[in-house]
Amino acid sequence: SIAAGIVAILVSHNLSRAALHWTLLSVSLLNCLLSTACSVGLALAIALTVHGRGTHLVRGCNSSALPADARTAIATNDCPFNTTRIYDTALALWFPSLLLAAAEAVLSGRCCLVALVFQGIGPCAHSYGKEQV
């Protein structure tokens, strides 16, 4: 993850522990927000594609030869790509991407919680502080 790389770079520069904790918190929070936005965008794209039966995927092809269902579409001269497999290929790529983006959001969120505990914020912060003393 990006957060781990940045923290490793900062450790190599011998920065203070507080600076590392704040860096971990900010980078993990940013990564969590971006991963969540990607997950929402992919879920929306999948929902719109399934609901419209793939018609949005071939909308740029201005051809009356294209049927309403993109799964049965044929390649035409008006479309710059072969439309026969665009529906299945898009969904086959989007579903794993959605799962990976959601997993990244969860892991970044956990990293953010750890950074909050390091700052003394949260339910586990008191026990962490006592263990350090």
From TrEMBL:
<dbReference type="InterPro" id="IPR020977">
    <property type="entry name" value="Beta-casein-like"/>
</dbReference>
<comment type="similarity">
    <text>Belongs to the TMEM54 family.</text>
</comment>
<dbReference type="GO" id="GO:0016020">
    <property type="term" value="C:membrane"/>
</dbReference>
<keyword id="KW-0472">Membrane</keyword>
<dbReference type="Pfam" id="PF12304">
    <property type="entry name" value="BCLP"/>
</dbReference>
<keyword id="KW-0812">Transmembrane</keyword>
<protein>
    <submittedName>
        <fullName>KCP3 protein</fullName>
    </submittedName>
</protein>
<keyword id="KW-1133">Transmembrane helix</keyword>
